[in-house]
Design goal:
312 residues, alpha/beta, Inosine-uridine Nucleoside N-ribohydrolase, Chain A, 12 helices, 9 strands, globular
Length: 312
């Protein structure tokens, strides 16, 4: 049976590709898309999720807007990477034809989990505010969550500070709730996602599809590539978020290592760091499967195949 998931996103170019991958994959039953403030403000990330679904003809998946700021800290966005709209590159005309669900994302997450038999996975690809808030509001959902596959963190250097990756840095307090929840968790951090670079030859594969969604992917990735080239000197933008979806589709595509992971919420210079004890020096319980290696050719075959499946 397809794996039921709730996809929690902050689109964002790579979130957009994660939506398209999840919806196209027969291995996944996409129950809902929930949005959170992250790459841009909540109104923008929510509009972008609706725009992506409208462009792809995804009309049967509810989209609910969630938390518009971190639990404790001041809001930060990634306009330097994703642009002022959060999804620069493609041109959108008119209002999306996919409506916004009237429920708050946290309410929808709780509702779906409480009605489940423990068969739903959560796939957060942005800050963990919605997930942390749902866990605090209704602790009875914890045993109902089959697994969490998230994009965030790093065991080495960060991409927003020397210590912290963006998704965790935006809301470390929410991340700490999630990582300490006891729910089985896979962390697709920067060391994994930087293996999934959309280099020019990869972008050409999407162009060679000669389909509207192939062209849409090219428009998104070309803008994404320009900011990563300018900000980080990369030869292609890392497609961070779809790796967390790829793990759900086929866990053999991603090698993992169990480790104890803590979230730093107090230190001056390492605030937001995922403290990953890969060498078990602390002897603490291993609470996370840390993704370490991606089967890159299979990943890109999966991504291109997913976009191709939307047809002409």
């Amino acid at each position: 049976m397809p794996q039921k998931i709730i996809l929690d996103v902050d689109p964002g170019h790579d979130d957009a590709m994660a939506i398209l991958l999840a919806n196209a994959s027969p291995e996944i039953d996409l129950l809902a898309i929930t949005t959170v403030a992250g790459n841009q403000t909540l109104p923008k990330t929510t509009l972008n999720a609706r725009r992506v679904c409208s462009r792809a003809g995804i009309h049967d998946v509810p989209i609910a807007a969630g938390c518009d700021r971190p639990l404790v800290r001041e809001q930060r966005v990634a306009a330097n990477i994703h642009g002022e709209s959060g999804l620069e590159g493609p041109t959108f005309s008119g209002e999306p034809d996919v409506p916004l669900d009237p429920r708050h994302a946290v309410d929808l997450i709780v509702e779906l989990l409480m009605a489940s038999d423990g068969d739903i996975m959560l796939v957060p690809t942005g800050p963990l505010t919605n997930i942390g808030m749902a866990m605090r509001r209704e602790p009875r959902i914890l045993p109902k969550i089959r697994h969490i596959s998230l994009m965030g963190g790093a065991w080495g250097f960060g991409n927003q500070t020397p210590s912290a990756e963006f998704n965790i840095l935006v809301d470390p307090e929410a991340a700490r709730i999630v990582f300490e929840s006891g729910v089985p968790l896979t962390m697709c951090g920067l060391e994994l996602t930087h293996q999934a670079k959309a280099t020019p030859d990869i972008i050409q594969r999407f162009a060679d599809l000669h389909t509207p969604l192939g062209d849409f992917a090219v428009e998104m990735l070309q803008f994404f590539a320009s900011t990563y080239r300018r900000m980080h000197g990369f030869d292609g933008p890392p497609l961070h978020d779809p790796t967390a979806v790829a793990w759900v589709i086929d866990p053999t595509m991603v090698e993992t290592q169990p480790a104890h992971v803590d979230i730093e919420t107090h230190a001056e210079f390492s605030y937001g760091r995922t403290v990953v004890d890969l060498h078990d020096v602390l002897g603490l319980p291993k609470n996370v499967q840390v993704a370490t290696k991606l089967d890159v050719p299979r990943f890109w075959d999966l991504m291109v195949g997913a976009i191709a499946s939307y047809g002409a």
